[in-house]
Amino acid sequence: MTARPLIARQPNERLLSLIREAGCSNAGLARRVNMCAAERGFDFRYDKTSVARWIRGQQPRGRAPDVIAEALGRKLGRPVTVDEIGMGTARQLTSSVGLNFAAGLGECLEQAMELWHSDIARRENGESQNPYAAGGSHVAPAALVEPSRDWLITPADAEVARTSGPRVGTADVEAVLATTAALVDLDRRWGAGHVRPVVAHYLNSVVAGLLGGAYRETVGRELFGAAARLTELAGYMAVDSGLPGLAQRYYIQALRLAQAAGDRGFGGYVLAAGMSHLAAQLGNPREVIQLARAAQEGSRGRATPRAEALFHAAEARGYAQLGDREGCRRAASAALEALERANEGSGDDPAWIAHFDAAYLADELAHCHRDLGQGRATQQRAAQALAAHPESRARRRAVGMLLMATGQLQEGDLEHACRTAEKAGTLLNGLRSGRGTDYFADFTARLEPHRAEPRVREFAARWEGN
């Protein structure tokens, strides 16, 4: 297994001292670590060279430091912590957690669990202490598109069944899916600020425990699919919490878990609905288009028309950000045609795409028209979305109102623009949504050229600082 360097590359004297105290050879410690890992459901294959590297200052990924501490503790006959073996602080300082698309299934499990564990540790230690721990606000530009390439070319996992650990069955998978559905509803109504901590803890405890259990092939595929769905939701919630770097890491791991599930359609969804939208938020339109196209290509023949509509809509947004009206028109037309086919079909969509209806597509197209400066069309699409979004989609309705307000502003209608934005602001006051706050701030910034107008001064007096 690969290892990463400690932040300060120095010999790990703590580990060397404990190895000597335990009377272990390097090969002997490696065997003990591998045995402890197997009991936990991990497939570690360390050898004496691995231990020599740890002593020189390298640190293994994921849960390995915990297992090393346990193995030494058993030999010494007392508990040993990761701090005692010189691997406690470094794990929290790494900026690479979750950024890799794992080649093998064992590494896939290790990286996902490392991300979930690091996210919990990050919160417990104070999110502002270290912005690089588990991602934070730092986005790795190269990792915006590279995982999609790996997803396209990586062979399918031949087998996911496991024989060691607690027995996992269909009921366990159904429980994860039901929990995810409940968390989605709460997120839509109240925003990620109220729900994200619950998702992170559930992944780190319940889902990690199930993935480390024993399951037959069919249950294993379903379990990986459920884990991918909840991990993608955690990524979306990280975006809504103002943590795009953390979102990036969750999306990459969701993509890999979907690969293990054998679900190419959901992998495309992660790329188009998650990573592509993140790239759009960061102002990287070419990456938006690349990710949307990767979703289309990688799921060809494996995604329903409704999913295809979302993929094309994501591509349209990239073209709109580039200012390419014709490219946007083509992609938007493809999205509308795909959704029409979906509505005429048998309705056999998986649960993760069932929400993408005419209202969501109208919302996506309203973004396109806004970015192209087409105020009237922005209002028309925003109105379609608002007419169909139920009250339970509170955040989505607030965003739709702000798109409407922007379209009104683009057409020079200051009075209606401010009035619509005020309705959105009132709705956002009941949410904890960084995404909603960003949209409100964007609208406020667009008012700046009209600052001298009495209606705008009135708006600013009421809403500045909110």
- Using the CA coordinates, give the radius of gyration: 24 Å
Structural class call reads mainly alpha
Largest sheet: 2 strands, antiparallel
Number of helical elements: 21
Strand order of the largest sheet: 1-2
Q: How many β-strand runs?
A: 2
The best one-word shape is elongated
Whole-number mean pLDDT = 88
Q: Low-confidence stretches at least 5 residues in length (pLDDT < 50)?
A: 1-9, 90-94, 127-134
Q: Give the ordered list of helices and strands.
A: EHHHEHHHHHHHHHHHHHHHHHH
Strand content: under 5%
Helix content: 55-70%
SSE blueprint and pairings:
Blueprint: E1 3-5, H1 13-22, H2 26-40, H3 48-56, E2 58-60, H4 64-76, H5 88-93, H6 105-124, H7 146-153, H8 170-190, H9 192-211, H10 217-240, H11 244-261, H12 264-281, H13 285-298, H14 305-322, H15 325-344, H16 358-371, H17 375-388, H18 394-410, H19 414-428, H20 434-446, H21 454-463
Antiparallel strand pairs: 1-2
